[in-house]
Amino acid sequence: MTLLNNNKPINYIIGSGASEEGSVSDDIKLKQQYSKANQAEVTQLEHDNNNNINNNNNNNNNKNKEDYKVNSRKKDDKIQQEQQQQEQQQQEQQEQQSSFKATSEKELYNTSKEDKAKDLKNRYTSTKRTTEIISVTLFSIFLAISVYRMLTLLFIKNIWIFLSSTVLAMFLADFFSGIVHWAADTWGSLDTPLVGNSFIRSFREHHVVPTQMTHHDVIETNGDNCMLTVPILAITALGNITMDSTYNMFLMSFLVNLCFWVSLTNQIHKWSHTYNVHPFVGFLQKSGIILSKRDHAIHHRNPFDKYYCITNGWLNPWLASINFWKRLENVVTLLTGVLPRTDDGAWCGIPSSQ
């Protein structure tokens, strides 16, 4: 075997060169493998990152959905709570009103007659007074014109029309007085809209202190009744009612008489509670032309449930004989469920059972 100067065999040198070439090739392969591994790792990392991003997005979406559901539930719960609170408040208000009403009635039972009378008297307002003055003034003007028209149309020549229409008007005025009196005594209270403090008040005052009305002047006594008649008297005074037929003459006389007796009803009522009335008034009472003290005293027996007619009282015995007012009360209670005279009984200190 031939030796080189470094004492190594030639084939070793050749083998060594081949080995170096193989090493380079292996390095290249390793680098390629490493590069592929890096690329695979990078790809895997990118994939993992994408998965993480997708997972995060999904988680965020799921979280948003859950948050939306939670918020929706909270809103629904809040709305439901508000509705429940409103219903509870309404129920509490109704209970308070019922409790207040019951307390008010209980307080009325325990309040002295003097305090009740003072309270009712103080409820007579300046507005009410002004309305009464206007009503009495208009009534007086329209009645004067209507009577003048009747006289100028020669009613004396048709006296039977005048007399018959007067009697019919007196009956009807008596019945109207009973209806109004019964309604104000039996139903409603001072809190009733429109008519409570302005109209029903005087009826409650009258039952608490019956003689209080004898201290009222002409305006306060007759204001409400005059107001009721003003619209009709305006027609008879200013309307174009011709007297060319018996029917028109009867109608004119009937309407004027009806308004006259309706307007006079509370004055007649006042006289039935007044001592030492004028002799002429006493004669009218004793003769039965107007309401007598004896007949009206029947109404003021507890529980004030009969003899409501107060113009002349002609209808009181007949209506009492057929139990008219009690039957009418039963109909109203059946339709509305409201018991009669609960408020009036509280003011008068009469138990509801009566």
TrEMBL record:
<feature type="compositionally biased region" description="Basic and acidic residues">
    <location>
        <begin position="63"/>
        <end position="80"/>
    </location>
</feature>
<dbReference type="InterPro" id="IPR052601">
    <property type="entry name" value="Plasmalogen_desaturase"/>
</dbReference>
<feature type="compositionally biased region" description="Low complexity">
    <location>
        <begin position="81"/>
        <end position="97"/>
    </location>
</feature>
<dbReference type="GO" id="GO:0006631">
    <property type="term" value="P:fatty acid metabolic process"/>
</dbReference>
<feature type="region of interest" description="Disordered">
    <location>
        <begin position="45"/>
        <end position="114"/>
    </location>
</feature>
<dbReference type="InterPro" id="IPR019547">
    <property type="entry name" value="Lipid_desat"/>
</dbReference>
<protein>
    <recommendedName>
        <fullName>Lipid desaturase domain-containing protein</fullName>
    </recommendedName>
</protein>
<feature type="transmembrane region" description="Helical">
    <location>
        <begin position="247"/>
        <end position="264"/>
    </location>
</feature>
<feature type="compositionally biased region" description="Low complexity">
    <location>
        <begin position="50"/>
        <end position="62"/>
    </location>
</feature>
<keyword id="KW-1133">Transmembrane helix</keyword>
<feature type="transmembrane region" description="Helical">
    <location>
        <begin position="133"/>
        <end position="152"/>
    </location>
</feature>
<feature type="domain" description="Lipid desaturase">
    <location>
        <begin position="170"/>
        <end position="343"/>
    </location>
</feature>
<dbReference type="Pfam" id="PF10520">
    <property type="entry name" value="Lipid_desat"/>
</dbReference>
<dbReference type="GO" id="GO:0016491">
    <property type="term" value="F:oxidoreductase activity"/>
</dbReference>
<keyword id="KW-0472">Membrane</keyword>
<dbReference type="GO" id="GO:0016020">
    <property type="term" value="C:membrane"/>
</dbReference>
<feature type="compositionally biased region" description="Basic and acidic residues">
    <location>
        <begin position="103"/>
        <end position="114"/>
    </location>
</feature>
<keyword id="KW-0812">Transmembrane</keyword>
<feature type="region of interest" description="Disordered">
    <location>
        <begin position="1"/>
        <end position="26"/>
    </location>
</feature>
<feature type="transmembrane region" description="Helical">
    <location>
        <begin position="159"/>
        <end position="184"/>
    </location>
</feature>
<comment type="similarity">
    <text>Belongs to the fatty acid desaturase CarF family.</text>
</comment>
